Amino acid sequence: MSAIGSERAGSGGAAAGGRVVVVIEDEAIVLAGYQMLFESWGYVVVAAQSADEALQMLTATPLPPGFILADFRLRDGQTGTEAIERVRAAFGADIPGVVVTGDTTVTVERLRLAASEGMPILHKPVNGRQLQDMLTRSFKGA
Fold first, then answer.
1. Residue 101 belongs to a domain with what CATH number?
2. Which of 65, 81, 111, 118 has minimal Cβ neighbours within 10 Å of its Cβ?
3. Domain range spanning residue 45?
4. Mean pLDDT of 112-129
5. Residue 116 and residue 62: Cα distance in Å, rounded?
6. Count of domains in the chain?
7. Residue 29, domain member (yes or no)
8. What's the rounded mean pLDDT across residues 105-125?
9. How many CA atoms within 13 Å lie on the side-chain side of 76?
């Protein structure tokens, strides 16, 4: 489901200066929505359903990730915070990461932990303007 290597991502990458956004979301329809949104803003998108899939896709592209968005609850008991940590471990601890959740049962303790590790929490439904502002700020220093 990755946009890397596609004609569309190639043109978006040129417009965005090769800025790569990694999206890790296990619901295919939601993942596709994020991919289309970020591509419409001119970003290169690595769209994956797990951290393993994202890492595999990222090794296939010469562009490093510049931003990571991950759903909090992923398959097989994995979390978005873990997924972000894995991508950061492979490509750089300073990559901005955001965790998205629609789950009202996520404990305040887990949300605080994510925030303390530099992963702001966005609650679904995600505000597109807020997300775009986060991306713009993240890539300003890049």
1. 3.40.50.2300
2. 118
3. 7-140
4. 82
5. 30
6. 1
7. yes
8. 77
9. 6
